[in-house]
């Protein structure tokens, strides 16, 4: 699969654009550029996009677009879009009781503050355009909707705020504790269990259902009614608390969703105990090794080795990169270490994909919503549609649904 880079420089003639082959670029390159988080991955470089006679030559390097527009709204506004449905699934800055004091922690927190301010500025611009009439319809939903931080009065506060506990459910019908857990779900390109996917989809669906009113979308044309039953709404009774047993199960599963890795190790008791035994065994082995080798010298450092290392660093800095190959023994050790680490990583990935990932999906499996017969129309429906309601809340049209077979095939593919 490929996509076209539609910039004026790319559409230039062969004389002005020697890199004509870059008019077509694989989707994997685009995905790699979108996932190139600054500071973690190298940007994707596009050379020869501009005339070669320019001095110095121009090189385009693409990285994660979130540094410019994490919501993707700016590009739509630049194209004069008039009706916008915005679902912001980006991670948002949370409150911390004791922010980290280290250099890395302060840098990450400062970046989170910058991103939060950028997001707020974009939202205010979005709202101002809606009030001024530049937008004919808009909806902006996000995972922390109605999850404001509890006020805390400082010592000697002259105007203390009284703590008023919020209702257990949000106005769109989700338990606040579960919604908070959904806001903390990690999305690191790993697998989503049915429980996680269904809960995220149900939350977004209910928010959209609340916001999709005639007041917000006065110019939206009438849409085709649907009686489709959304399978992901099978988790709705757990999210609104009407089924206590299901709610406890969902809460337990989502508790582990904020972890970066090893989620299933905390969800399966046998793996939890096994991990503790393994950590104790590894710790005991390290202690025994240190005790057994306590009188031996691990590495001898001489002035000759220090001088040779410094010389190689200096020569490499001034452009003589080939000097690093002079130390053959060191080069062979680096190659061996690289092969060992790569092999170990490949084995760990295989074990995870073939054993732990299927186990994680099995533990997080959730039943789909079942269709119910409608007395009025005689067709299968559970009332689970996305209406465009008027200001009084009367639904008159609904958004067309995708065929149930598509969702069923996707569900079977995840299993």
List keywords for this structure.
single chain, 415 residues, 3 domains, two-stranded antiparallel sheet, 13 helices, 8 strands, 44% helix, disordered N terminus, disordered C terminus
Describe, in plain words, how this protein is organized in 3D.
This protein is mainly alpha-helical and 415 residues long. It has 3 domains: 2-62, no CATH class; 69-142, no CATH class; 165-294 and 311-415, no CATH class. The protein is built from 13 helices and 8 strands. The chain has helices at residues 27-34, 66-69, 73-78, 103-132, 176-183, 194-211, 236-239, 244-255, 263-267, 269-292, 303-317, 328-363, 404-414, and strands spanning 2-4, 24-26, 44-46, 60-62, 83-88, 137-142, 387-389, 395-398. The strands form 4 sheets. A two-stranded antiparallel sheet has the order 1-2. Strands 3-4 form a two-stranded antiparallel sheet. Strands 5-6 form a two-stranded parallel ribbon. Helix 5 runs parallel beside helix 8 (244-255). The longest helix has 36 residues, at 328-363. The radius of gyration is 28 Å and the shape is globular.
């Amino acid at each position: 699969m490929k996509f076209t880079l539609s910039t004026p420089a790319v559409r230039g003639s062969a004389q002005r654009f020697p890199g004509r082959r870059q008019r077509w670029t694989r989707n994997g390159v685009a995905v790699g550029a979108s996932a190139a988080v600054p500071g973690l991955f190298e940007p994707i470089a596009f050379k020869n996009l501009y005339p070669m006679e320019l001095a110095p030559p121009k090189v385009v390097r693409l990285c994660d677009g979130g540094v410019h527009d994490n919501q993707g709204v700016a590009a739509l506004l630049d194209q004069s879009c008039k009706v916008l449905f915005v679902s912001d699934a980006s991670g948002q800055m949370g409150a911390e009781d004791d922010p980290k004091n280290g250099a890395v922690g302060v840098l990450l927190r400062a970046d989170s503050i910058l991103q939060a301010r950028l997001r707020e500025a974009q939202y205010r611009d979005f709202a101002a355009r809606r009030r001024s009439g530049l937008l004919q319809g808009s909806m902006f939903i996000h995972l922390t909707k109605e999850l404001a931080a509890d006020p805390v009065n400082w010592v000697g506060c002259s105007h203390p705020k009284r703590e008023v506990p919020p209702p257990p459910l949000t106005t769109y019908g989700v338990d606040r504790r579960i919604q908070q857990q959904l806001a903390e779900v990690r999305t690191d390109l790993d697998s989503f269990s049915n429980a996680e996917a269904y809960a995220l989809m149900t939350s977004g669906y209910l928010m959209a259902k609340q916001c999709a009113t005639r007041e917000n979308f006065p110019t939206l044309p009438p849409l085709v009614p649907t009686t489709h039953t959304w399978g992901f709404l099978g988790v709705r009774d757990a999210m609104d608390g009407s089924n206590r047993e299901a709610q406890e199960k969902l809460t337990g599963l989502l508790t582990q969703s904020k972890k970066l890795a090893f989620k299933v190790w905390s969800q399966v008791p046998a793996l939890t105990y096994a991990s503790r035994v393994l950590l104790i065994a590894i710790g005991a082995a390290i202690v025994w090794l240190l005790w057994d080798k306590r009188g031996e010298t691990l590495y001898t450092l001489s002035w000759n080795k220090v001088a040779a290392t410094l010389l190689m660093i200096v020569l490499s800095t001034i452009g003589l990169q080939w000097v690093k190959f002079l130390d053959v023994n060191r080069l062979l050790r680096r190659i061996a270490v690289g092969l060992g680490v790569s092999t170990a990583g490949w084995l760990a990935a295989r074990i995870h994909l073939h054993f732990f990932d299927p186990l994680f999906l099995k533990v997080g499996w959730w039943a789909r919503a079942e269709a119910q017969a409608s007395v009025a129309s005689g067709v299968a429906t559970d009332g689970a549609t996305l209406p465009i309601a008027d200001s009084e809340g009367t639904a008159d049209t609904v958004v067309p649904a995708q065929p149930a077979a598509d969702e069923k095939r996707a569900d079977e593919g995840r299993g």
